[in-house]
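Quick one: structure tokens for this chain, please?
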Amino acid sequence: MDGIALHVTHSISLFKETEVALSSRGIGVDFGTADYATLDPAEIAAVVAAVPRLDMKRAFAACALHLAETQPETTYDTFIRDFGERYVPGYAAPSWVDAIAAGPYTE
């Protein structure tokens, strides 16, 4: 379960159990991360031929943008924050800086 829950939080997932780190890195290949270059181009072509991408870049970006627009509080520690910061006017994900400044302590 951690493989899915943590795959977008590389600062954690890459240091968890082998299966979690592998899930994170494998999912990253779909987006062209550095691991993509370590795979055989013929094998990648065979996988894409068997399982077409179906306009994944555009469809995924639209989904990420929707999350940034409608649920910004869920995006602060994931790459979806990047979509919000770049494309959503007035986007403001929660910030630890704001939480600390607004804390109940007087010092």
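The chain is about 55% helix and 0% strand.
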